[in-house]
Amino acid sequence: MTSTQLKTSALALLKKFYGYDSFRPGQFEVIEAVCSGRDAVVIMPTGGGKSICYQMPALLNDGCVVVVSPLIALMQDQVQALMANGIPAVAINSNRSDFDNRSDIDAAHAGRIKIIYLSPERLIADIDQWLTRLNICLFAIDEAHCISQWGHDFRKVYTQLSALKSKFPNIPIMALTATADRLTRDDISRQLGLKDPLRWLGSFNRPNLSLKVITGATSRKKIQTVQGLTRRYPNDSGIVYTLSRKNAESANEQLNRLGIRSTVYHAGLTPSQRQKAQSLFTNGQVQVVCATIAFGMGIDKSNIRWVVHFNLPANIESYYQEIGRAGRDGLPAETVLFYSYQDVVLRRGLIEKSESALQQIFTEKLTQMQRYAEAQVCRRRILMSYFGEEMSEDCHNCDVCHNPPERFDGTILAQKAISAALRTDQHIGIFTMVDILRGSARAEIRRLGYDHLKTYGVGRDLPSADWNFYIQQMVQLGVFEPDMEHNNVLKTTPLAMRIVRGQEALQLTRFVARERVARKAKAPTLPSLGGGTSKELFEYLKRVRMRFASQSGIAPYMVLSDKSLQDMAIRRPRSLDELLDVHGIGEYKAKRFGEIFIAAIEDFLND
Ligand code: ADP
Ligand code: ZN
User: Which of 76, 122, 138, 210 is 20 to 30 A from 87 via CA?
Assistant: First the structure.
């Protein structure tokens, strides 16, 4: 088959099974490669469309595709999504009975199954068993970064996947991941023994995600931010990521107390509790999940409108993958990262305790994360340059772009702060320093005699939020060094001495109250929906979808995505033919759900 012929068939199948009109960049290229027997490494960001890369070869070929995926909990979702498109798929795993597994394996042997999901453990265990008698056209290794120690999610069992190439030398392998770090990328093809693989490195830019970092917020402020987001997007959901289980639990309790439907997800839950949490979320029964990093791998829920990090993530890869769970439908989505220097200290401590041979790499990655959070230039440019992509213009969708920093001569402020540190023998942390500078009447301050210091009250003219911000900046700029072993009291550095003696000046970035920023940034509205009625119809169709989904026991987003419903609300199809023009509706879905939605549109328009 020529490339053009292959493309024609692939496009027809894409329309028929998925309802899409064209491939995203890279999809066809890697499909073509594996169809000609070549290995492939596919690096695309979360939401980039990796699934179709490995599913389509199953539709184009006689045999089936075996997909290795580390998270059993997600397999059922993926199988359901495929079945909803009319593609026969199964997941063979330990969550199911031997009987069920066996009968699915029989069906696969009979050639009735196109896609088989397996855990890596299962693949290794069964590699000499039923797999050898199967007509396999492709092995797909999802979350392939798990094979690399350099990555952020190493799984030992993944290293055994190197056996695939020796046992099945003639079957192409496609490795897929959303992790872009270079060390990991190279490790993947080396460890899997891939032969001259086609490499596709997709663009990591997700312009629809707004980026925002808030420094030094209180936990109350963090909860308020989440509350604001839930109000702004009452019909959509979001994720709160925290550093520890305890933080996740406490965030969840506070949100519940405010009447927000939320739940927790972390490594301390049993598998069934986790599954429960996940399904509450995907079914839209809770609006918020408070999670540690364990949550969200592979979640394809298109109406996640926001992601908030309560703490600094360990590295840029994790951060980007986590915020990437929002806005997978391509519509505007918001992300907020709360940053405090404490988190850096805490994470450093964790790394040191880990006694891992990779401490140095982890520390380096943490430092890069910290630099991002502290940056005064377009944040998206930092991210893209981290992932090796050039961006020649500012993004206009991050907090720095919205609010370009204004610099000023902060030498006098710094001298005041440094003098407070020196006059207290460098025994104070940031909060006491602010109290002294502002002349606080706190009993503690008086007890220690700090109210007699010459520096007491010299910074009264600035609110404490501003002082906090400036002193943190001074830390970042190397004026002070927090003593991690002694409650992070601020030690002066040689730079501080030069400043206080007037030998050197210090430029600071002007503090801008975050509330002002928040008010300026408008809530994204649905773009292409003109007039109130399309929006009303969209909301109506969402209710229809919810009812149908709960009746048939599948997740709403698997019936149809928000994007499909929006497109439907604009096009208002009155027949099955017209329905097929709607984004994301293939023949199978049109047949299965079509009449319900056409009837609903008719009802709505006749009302
Ligand atoms: P990934 O696995 O890379 O995170 P998915 O494969 O889950 O991403 O795809 C993300 C979303 O994009 C899904 O809803 C998918 O149906 C959609 N999608 C994938 N390919 C296309 C395409 N060619 N046209 C339109 N939508 C697509
Ligand atoms: Zn920007």
Answer: 122
